[in-house]
Specification:
Layout lengths: L1 E6 L5 E7 L2 E8 L5 H16 L8 E7 L3 H15 L6 E5 H7 L7 E9 L2 E9 L4 E3 L4 E4 H11 L3 E4 L3 H10 L4 E3 L2 H4 L3 H14 L17 H14 L1
Parallel strand pairs: 1-4, 4-5, 6-10, 10-11
Antiparallel strand pairs: 1-2, 2-3, 6-7, 7-8, 7-9
């Protein structure tokens, strides 16, 4: 089972080709260039240099959310374009779960966090089993103070993973929690994690198609919130 995975949910951008759990190739950039300029050339170059073609791919996977609204749209649009011509099945992967897969070997509790702004983080919690993940809560946008109280209830050491890990570390430490930063090379979003998350969807029959593939933003954009506020004000 060859899985082509795309990750463009935050500042970094990556693509990976995996065969089941084995990583065949991966390309990663954190250059500050827009993903609309880097993602598709990255995919094309990676496939060319590892000696594989899109025709050999069985599943196209993408980090579908949460994350940057623009980044998610770019990634999902690219995945739809790659999958649609040959009607390849798709995997819409949780960005947070994909990050956690990079630490599934640790046997510890994992706290995946991304900066959601407005004093919130996008978060999901997992228990790593050594060869898999046990989800402890759904993906959500949660206040950092609320997350701190939840982690106190758990009482177990936490590995922070994600581009919001450093943001959360000091606050959670000051709350008396035993939190640890994932090492830098495993901390950020990567397409390998997306591919590993997608493999679980393959095994449990949860794939979709290009037509149904869509981002999962987890909350309204600022523009949508402002529009709704204006409509409510008009109605009063």
């Amino acid at each position: 089972m060859k899985i082509l995975a795309l990750e463009s949910s935050a500042a970094a951008c990556s693509a990976a080709l995996c065969e089941d759990e084995f990583l065949l190739a991966q390309s990663f950039q954190n250059s500050g260039l827009t993903h609309s300029r880097t993602l598709m050339p990255m995919v094309q170059s990676m496939l060319e240099h590892c000696g594989h073609t899109l025709a050999e791919v069985d599943v196209v996977a993408v980090a579908a959310g949460p994350g940057s609204f623009t980044g998610l749209r770019i990634g999902v649009s690219a995945a739809k374009g790659l999958a649609w011509p040959d009607e390849k099945p798709c995997a819409a992967c949780s960005t947070l779960e994909s990050m956690a897969w990079c630490l599934a070997h640790t046997g510890m509790e994992l706290c995946a966090v991304m900066d959601a702004r407005r004093n919130q983080v996008y978060n999901a919690r997992f228990r790593s089993t050594g060869d898999g993940l046990l989800r402890l809560c759904p993906d959500r946008a949660v206040a950092l103070a609320e997350l701190a109280e939840e982690l106190k209830t758990s009482g177990k050491p936490q590995i922070l993973v994600g581009d919001g890990a450093v943001l959360c570390y000091t606050t959670l430490k000051e709350s008396g929690l035993d939190v640890r930063l994932a090492p830098p090379h495993l901390r950020f979003q990567s397409a390998w994690g997306v591919a590993r998350c997608a493999l679980e969807q393959v095994r449990t029959g949860r794939l979709t198609d290009a037509a149904s593939l869509s981002p999962d933003y987890h909350r309204l954009s600022q523009a949508e919130r402002e529009r709704l506020a204006k409509e409510q004000n008009k109605g009063e």
